[in-house]
Specification:
By secondary structure, the chain is mainly beta. The chain has one domain: Exo-inulinase, domain 1 (Jelly Rolls, Sandwich), CATH 2.60.120.560. Helix content is 2%, strand content 55%. β4 and β5 form a beta hairpin.
């Protein structure tokens, strides 16, 4: 049986965090939980506008964060897919954005998750965080499947991760950019989104399909 759920991953930004919450590495906004990389990120570090289809958001220089919903996860065989549009900014930073998978203890010191990001210079990254430590599974790598953001044009990306019993495959715009052994990619757990600092991104949809 196949189950598909559309996940509004950016709704957590619709309600601003209080000043007290913003001092914490993890905070709650409605049904969503948000964790900034920097514990002292302010409630103005991220801004969201509802703009159907989807949501447009920006981050400032301290805005790198992940977001997740407690009842949204993927395990076993599944496909997770997101459609995004990167808008040009004046910061000059090539920063990453994309999917979080395999989330565990995301509001605790022992947080663990895998993230699959792209950025506007045509590169992708697969990385894992365990507590305060991160390590590259695939470092920033150029691939022709990743769109480049150039001039005033937006870069459209469709990111997808397909997990099977023995492998995890990563796609950008329909092209496989990497395949890993299932044992090398801890993807069972919470599904979410990561957006690094100084970005302007529109997300139209995020779907989780259990297979």
């Amino acid at each position: 049986m196949r189950r598909t759920a559309s996940v509004p991953l950016l709704l957590f930004l619709a309600a601003p965090l209080s000043a007290q919450q913003a001092r914490l590495p993890s905070s709650r906004s409605g049904d969503w939980q948000v964790r900034y990389d920097r514990p002292n990120a302010s409630d103005t570090s991220m801004r969201i506008e509802t703009m159907p289809p989807g949501w447009h958001f920006t981050t400032n220089m301290r805005g790198s964060a992940i977001a997740w919903q407690a009842n949204q996860s993927a395990r076993g065989n599944f496909r997770v897919e997101a459609e995004t549009f990167l808008f040009p900014t004046t910061s000059g930073h090539a920063e990453g954005y994309g999917l979080v998978l395999g989330g565990r203890d995301l509001d605790a010191d022992a947080q663990s998750y895998l993230y699959f990001l792209v950025r506007g210079d045509g590169q992708f990254l697969i990385k894992h965080r365990q507590g305060a430590q991160t390590h590259d599974i695939v470092p920033w790598t150029a691939h022709p499947g990743v769109a480049r953001q150039e001039g005033t044009a937006n870069a459209r990306e469709i990111l997808a991760v397909e997990a099977a019993s023995d492998s995890v495959r990563f796609f950008v715009n329909g092209q496989q950019v990497r395949a890993l052994a299932r044992s090398a990619a801890p993807v069972d757990g919470l599904v979410g989104l990561r957006v690094n600092h100084a970005l302007s991104v529109h997300v139209t949809r995020v779907t989780v399909t259990q297979r």
